[in-house]
């Protein structure tokens, strides 16, 4: 009995209050600023074509995989002619010869190499991934530039700028870190006059670091080209690099 | 030339009928063998030059027809590298090419071992000749590593002579896929890549998925810094992995397989490439495997350097040529994996165990280990232990057993401080928990994980805050950026740690780290983010006082964090040899010859060179910051 009265009291109390339910779709609530809503491809009013260039970045970035991009080559981003002319001039200056890229593309046509494999092969040819080569791959395979850029910046292996003749890899694995790999890199930075990840201006040396080479019991370790050095100290490192600089005639800075 | 068409061309010579009859080429009967270890660590310390020296010296001594020099994969005892095994038992370490002549003269010709290159027991000082008697090897049980360091990894004949490919041939010609899956399930083996999912169950799911095409993948993207077991197995015994994959392909019904291997392991890639080619030439891979009508093609895929690709869904995306970003599960790869087809992914070590299980029976494997975890696990033991290298012990052995019985204790008579397990996803276990058994559940209870099996031992000289920062810096860089908690959370944690190390730590920073870590673990999409805070959280849990010393007292107890230490010279110990002054890159060490030197603290960059070059142990590191010129100069002037 008492319970019924309590319930009635609540009902009566709320009767004159403003209602919180909305009669959708007759009434429309203003959505909060960050409401998600639905996806829609924007059509450019100027030419009636979709603005989406099928770069597929939304597909790969969506945390819950609700986007699938199916496209035809019609909507590929074309490389403007003016840009191509500019690139040709750039190519002449940088000494990138696109003929060297042909075997890589042939391999793609024959065996359907994956994008990563193709970029690895292209890097083997040039030592890095020149912008021109990336554009050529995009043009010939129909893989969008943004997708190639996405892949080439995701993986540590790919380099977008030229590297020196001698690549100095200092291992920064756990064992090497504990054994003083940081001091090794610092000693090298000082001797070469460049920061980690950079190349000397005479294009002789590139100082880089790797996660782990698997030679943990020799820590700290370093690799210069094919030569490997284990159990080094900052002092020994300075000597090794000075000797190498004398040998190949490299300059500091 | 492509990197991924290794197994495309299939030339199928008739399969060998009895593999045991294959002669071991080039090894004269009754001859003497010299096996030079060519694992990564040994190659780093010059073992290939030692190999060349042996070939030359043996030839020069006229023993060419009696002694055969060959290479082997990682023998295990990497701290002795380069390692050379003479005959069946004598192990020499730390050999240089110029020492080879002496070994050939005294051992091969004279018949007596050269004492000074033998293993020296740290406690007794005794030289041990037979490597089977060394504690490091005696304390191990080797299953996955059974042939690593025994066979020549570049010779399929060697592997065959050890009964290789017998298990696969037997399984494919006499048994059903169900029999194999049941057998693997009964053995109780769990995924050796770290997550510890029962392998038999995984295979069963993949086998039950209905599809025209299925894939089998071997995850050899061992990106954890400080772990090298998978690398050593691929370098030392690639055929065991291939054989395991052949058996797996038959069990789940896959005709195509991939080995996704890190490009940073060039030696493993080279040997695996050759092993695949050799296996194909003999008809163990490709069309009509062992003449049973089973087809299995194996391709190699080189990773391009992304830690997150060790996660199975990211690895699949990477094989497809995309950015290696993980996706939500379910659907699990067993239902929808590579190119949307059912896919089975296992770790290198898991596959290496399979042939042994098939050959010796599930019971034999299940006899090792404890109830929840059967069998053995390989660990890479590194850091400040006496015997660093590859170690395989039964599941459930204690950490103490691994570090002190196998590893021989701490180097240079220092104190054990902690062991870091499982790399950037794992944690640090302190001395008080040394009796924790090594199995998935017990280690998870401490906050660490078994992980892929990296074990880095640290002593009193290692700063735990710095170590935690090192791992977080790694995971922060390797975060794929897909989900917010991992991408931004690890960055914020790193900033907090950076300021603690720089001496700008604030009250409440420890709590902030704990809170952030909790949210990152809760909110991340994949295991990378879900485990990234572990190194920080476990070090806070067990070494909170070190964090507090950094924040409140502005000092680094271990003497590592540059902003919180001062270098000084002990005037009593300094002999004035001027070596440190000569080596100092900033010329901040002054002093007369034969007089105690002093360091000008204002100009000292704390590069540690002076301490390393000092022969008299006179350069000391003081925990805390001092502004004045410290050391001898003051004392001398005062006098």
Question: What does this protein structure show overall?
Answer:
The complex is a heterodimer of chains A (253) and B (639). In chain A, helix 9 runs parallel beside helix 10 (234-248). Chain A has a four-stranded mixed β-sheet, with helices on one face. Chain A is of the alpha+beta class. Chain A starts with a helix and ends in a 5-residue tail after the last helix. Chain A has helices at 2-14, 57-61, 81-94, 102-111, 115-126, 131-141, 145-154, 174-178, 181-192, 234-248, and strands at residues 166-171, 205-210, 222-224, 227-229. Chain A is built from ten helices and four strands, in the order H-H-H-H-H-H-H-E-H-H-E-E-E-H. In chain A, a hairpin with a 2-residue loop joins strand 3 (222-224) and strand 4. Chain B has 25 helices and 21 strands. In chain B, strands 9-10-8-7-11 form a five-stranded mixed β-sheet. A five-stranded mixed β-sheet of chain B has the order 13-12-16-14-15. Chain B has a four-stranded mixed β-sheet with strand order 2-1-3-4, covered by helices on one side. In chain B, strand 3 (84-86) and strand 4 (90-92) form a beta hairpin. Chains A and B meet through helix 4, helix 5, helix 7, helix 8 and helix 9 of A and helix 1, helix 12, strand 12, strand 16 and helix 17 of B.
Class from helix and strand fractions of chain A: alpha+beta
For the largest beta sheet of chain A, what order do the strands appear in spatially?
2-1-3-4
Order of helices and strands of chain A: HHHHHHHEHHEEEH
Instruction: Give the low-confidence spans of chain B.
Output: 1-29, 629-639
Low-pLDDT regions of chain A: none
Strand order of the largest sheet of chain B: 9-10-8-7-11
End-to-end span of chain B in angstroms?
Answer: 75 Å
Helix content of chain A: 40-55%
Count of β-strands of chain A = 4
β-strand amount of chain B: 15-25%
The mean pLDDT of chain B is 85
In angstroms, what is the radius of gyration of chain B?
27 Å
Largest sheet of chain B: 5 strands, mixed
């Amino acid at each position: 009995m008492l319970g019924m009265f309590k319930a009635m009291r609540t009902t009566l109390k709320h009767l004159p209050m403003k209602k919180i339910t909305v009669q959708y779709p007759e009434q429309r609530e203003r959505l909060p600023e960050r409401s998600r809503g639905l996806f829609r491809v924007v059509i450019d009013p100027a030419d009636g074509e979709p603005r989406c260039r099928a770069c597929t970045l939304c597909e790969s970035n969506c945390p819950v995989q609700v986007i699938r991009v199916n496209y035809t080559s019609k909507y590929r981003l074309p490389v403007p002619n003016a840009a191509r002319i500019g690139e040709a001039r750039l190519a002449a200056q940088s000494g990138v010869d696109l003929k060297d890229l042909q075997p890589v593309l042939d391999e793609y046509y024959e065996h359907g190499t994956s994008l990563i494999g193709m970029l690895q092969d292209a890097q083997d040819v040039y030592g890095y991934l020149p912008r021109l080569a990336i554009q050529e791959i995009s043009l010939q395979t129909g893989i969008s530039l943004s997708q190639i850029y996405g892949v080439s910046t995701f993986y540590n292996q790919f380099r977008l700028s030229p590297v020196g003749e001698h690549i100095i890899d200092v291992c920064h694995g756990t064992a090497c870190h504990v054994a003083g790999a940081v001091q090794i890199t610092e000693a090298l930075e000082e001797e070469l006059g460049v920061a980690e990840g950079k190349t000397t201006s005479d294009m002789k040396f590139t100082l880089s670091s790797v996660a782990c080479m698997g030679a943990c019991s020799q820590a700290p370790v370093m690799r210069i080209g094919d030569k490997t050095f284990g159990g080094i100290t900052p002092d020994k490192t300075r000597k090794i690099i000075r000797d190498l600089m004398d040998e190949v005639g490299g300059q500091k800075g | 030339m492509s990197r991924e068409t290794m197994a495309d061309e299939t030339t199928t010579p008739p399969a060998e009928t009895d593999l045991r009859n294959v002669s071991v080429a080039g090894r004269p009967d009754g001859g003497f063998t010299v096996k030079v270890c060519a694992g990564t660590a040994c190659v780093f310390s010059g073992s290939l030059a030692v190999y060349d020296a042996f070939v030359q010296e043996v030839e020069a001594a006229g023993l060419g027809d009696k002694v055969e020099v060959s290479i082997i994969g990682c023998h295990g005892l990497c701290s002795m590298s380069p390692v050379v095994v003479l005959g069946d038992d004598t192990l020499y370490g730390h050999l240089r090419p110029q020492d080879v002549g002496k070994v050939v003269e005294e051992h091969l010709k004279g018949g007596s071992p050269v004492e000074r290159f033998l293993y020296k027991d740290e406690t007794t000082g005794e030289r041990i000749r037979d490597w089977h008697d060394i504690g490091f090897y005696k304390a191990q049980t080797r299953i996955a590593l059974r042939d690593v360091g025994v066979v020549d990894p570049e010779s399929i004949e060697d592997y065959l002579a050890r009964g290789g490919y017998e298990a696969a041939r037997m399984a494919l010609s006499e048994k059903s896929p169900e029999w194999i899956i049941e057998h693997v399930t009964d053995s109780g083996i769990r995924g050796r890549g770290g997550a510890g999912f029962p392998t038999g169950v995984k295979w069963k799911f993949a086998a039950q998925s209905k599809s025209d095409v299925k894939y089998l993948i071997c995850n050899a993207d061992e990106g954890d810094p400080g772990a090298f077991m998978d690398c050593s197995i691929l370098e030392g015994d690639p055929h065991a992995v291939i054989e395991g994959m052949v058996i797996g392909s038959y069990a789940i019904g896959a005709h195509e397989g991939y080995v996704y291997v890190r490009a940073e392991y060039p030696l493993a890639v080279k040997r695996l490439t050759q092993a695949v080619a050799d296996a194909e030439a003999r008809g163990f891979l490709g069309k009509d495997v062992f003449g049973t009508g089973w087809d299995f093609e194996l391709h190699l895929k080189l990773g391009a350097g992304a830690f997150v690709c060790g996660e199975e869904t990211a690895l699949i995306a990477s094989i497809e040529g995309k950015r290696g970003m993980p996706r939500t599960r379910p659907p699990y790869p067993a239902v929808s994996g590579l190119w949307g087809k059912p896919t089975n992914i296992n770790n290198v070590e898991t596959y290496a165990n399979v042939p042994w299980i098939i050959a010796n029976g599930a019971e034999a494997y299940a006899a090792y280990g404890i109830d929840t975890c059967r069998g053995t696990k390989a660990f890479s033991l590194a850091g400040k232990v006496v015997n660093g290298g590859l170690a395989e012990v039964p599941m459930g052995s204690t950490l103490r057993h691994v570090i002190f019985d196998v590893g021989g204790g701490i180097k240079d008579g220092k104190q054990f401080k902690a062991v870091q397990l499982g790399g950037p996803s794992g944690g640090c276990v302190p001395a008080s928990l040394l009796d924790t058994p090594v199995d998935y559940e017990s280690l998870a209870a401490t906050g660490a994980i078994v992980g892929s099996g990296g074990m880095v031992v640290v002593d009193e000289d290692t700063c735990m805050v710095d170590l935690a920062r090192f791992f977080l810096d790694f995971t922060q860089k390797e975060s794929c950026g897909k989900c917010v908690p991992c991408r931004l959370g690890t960055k914020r944690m790193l900033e907090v740690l950076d300021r603690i190390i720089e001496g700008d730590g604030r009250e409440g920073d420890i709590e902030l780290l704990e809170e952030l870590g909790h949210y990152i673990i809760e909110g991340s999409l994949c295991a990378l983010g879900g485990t990234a805070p572990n190194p920080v959280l476990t070090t806070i849990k067990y070494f909170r006082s070190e964090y507090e010393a950094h924040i409140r007292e502005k000092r680094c107890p271990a003497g590592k964090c540059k902003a919180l230490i001062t270098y000084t010279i002990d005037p009593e110990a300094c002999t004035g040899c001027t070596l440190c002054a000569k080596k100092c890159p900033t010329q901040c060490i002054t002093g007369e010859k034969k007089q105690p030197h002093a360091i000008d603290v204002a100009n000292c960059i704390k590069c540690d060179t002076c301490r390393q070059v000092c022969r008299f142990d006179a350069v000391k590191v003081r925990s805390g910051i001092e502004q004045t010129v410290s050391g001898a100069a003051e004392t001398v002037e005062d006098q």
